[in-house]
Amino acid sequence: RAKTGLNQTICFYEARMDEAARTRRALAKDLWAGIERKQFSLFYQVQKSVATGETIGYEVLLRWLHPERGMVPPSEFIPIAEECGAIVPLGEWVLRTACTEAARWLHPYKIAVNLSPVQIGHVDLVALVSQVLAETGLAPSLLELEITETTIIADKTRALHILRQIKALGVTIAIDDFGTGYSSLDTLRSFPFDKIKLDRTFMTEVETSPQAKAIIRAILALGRSLNVPVLAEGVETEDQLALLHLEGCDEAQGYLLGRPKPQADIHELIRRAKTMQSPGLAPDAANA
Ligand code: C2E
Ligand code: MG
Ligand code: MG
Ligand code: MG
């Protein structure tokens, strides 16, 4: 009986895996069509100085409005896009669209664009970035590229070579989701980063775990001694923000400071802040 039960369980999981594989294949097919049919759009999430509350920039977050499935989260479609190669045209579209939109903003905020490891491995990224900057007229210093450690680990020598050339253009590099990867400290030592983005999991646990708090402190100390600013991701509560302030964290991003918003909303926030002529007031003081 026990054996039958186990077999049934296995069959159940196999059926579920089949279904998951079918969904992935279907999404892969839809991705290519979705690019053609302009189903993608960009959302922007504010990044602020912890000390002053001033807006520093916006992270660019890709959104896919699927005609039948509705909003598909990036955590679901980015891995599929990486697997089937659609990330190459998609990533290029993100970079070009974000630079075009930001170049039209009435205030020169920085934009942070996420890069996939595939883009470092298979695309002439340096040529693409310099071409897009030239096309859109966005100042290179207003573009930041976010990469994770996975990006670097695949081919360290190549990654280092490419990142150095990108930095030579005047573009900055942030290390994303820091603290969750493999060789964090070695990566920091050998790569030319301009910002460390502390992974969201540390914020989630900070109020309940003394270990999480200790690690945050250690990473902030590391940032200070390497002279690299640290941004805390996933800040959702006033208590978390107060803690970051106390510990001397440089920047923060999270639902408390602002949810990711469509381009039109950001443009309007900046326009309103401009017409109010109050430079001290952050444009998105009224959070959604
Ligand atoms: P990420 O780069 O670490 O982006 C931050 C994610 O955290 C975003 O999820 C954002 O909406 C979410 N977030 C921000 N503040 C909070 C908060 O206070 N609480 C919580 N619970 N979440 C918060 P999103 O937009 O779903 O993106 C997920 C991941 O997908 C991103 O993680 C990034 O790795 C990837 N991604 C998004 N857009 C792109 C893109 O254009 N290209 C590539 N290659 N990857 C992208
Ligand atoms: Mg990111
Ligand atoms: Mg992140
Ligand atoms: Mg993440």
From TrEMBL:
UniProt keyword Transmembrane helix present: yes
Gene Ontology BP annotations: regulation of DNA-templated transcription
UniProt feature coiled coil, ranges: none
Entry superkingdom: Bacteria
EAL domain location: 24-274
Keyword Transmembrane helix: yes
Keywords of this entry: Membrane, Transmembrane, Transmembrane helix
Record's GO cellular component terms: membrane
Signal peptide: none
Protein name: EAL domain-containing protein
Source species: Phreatobacter stygius
Residues of the full protein shown: 652 to 939 of 948
